[in-house]
Amino acid sequence: MSTCRAAWQRTATGGRYTGGVTSPRTARISLLQLPAFSIEDAAASLAHTLRRIDETAASEKPDLIALPEVTYPAYFLGTNDLSHCDVLSPADAAARFAEKARQHGVYIAAGLALDAPGGGYANGALLFGRDGSVAGRYDKSFLFHFDTRWFAPGATYPVFETDIGRIGMLVCADGRLPEIARSLMLNGAQIILDLTAWVSGGRELKDLSTSQVEFLMPARAAENGVWVACCDKFGIEAESIVYAGRSRFIGPDGETVAALGPDEDAALTYDVPITDAAPRVERRPELYAALTHPTESLAITRQLDEPFVMSQHEHRIAVVQMAMPPTGKEFLVAARRHVERQAMMDAEIAVFPATPSRLRRAYPHDTVLAGVEAIARGTGVCVAFTVSEPDAEGWRAMYLVGPRGVMAKHRQTHKPPGPRFATMPLGDDVCPVVSTPIGRVGLMIAAEGFVPEVARSLMLRGAEFILWSGDDPGSPLMPVIARCRAEENRVFVACAAAPAPNGATMIVDPNGRPLAQALAGRELCVAADVNRALAHMKQRAPGTDIVRNRQPATYGAITRVTTPERSPA
Question: H helices of 15-162, where?
Answer without folding.
Answer: 42-60, 90-104, 147-150
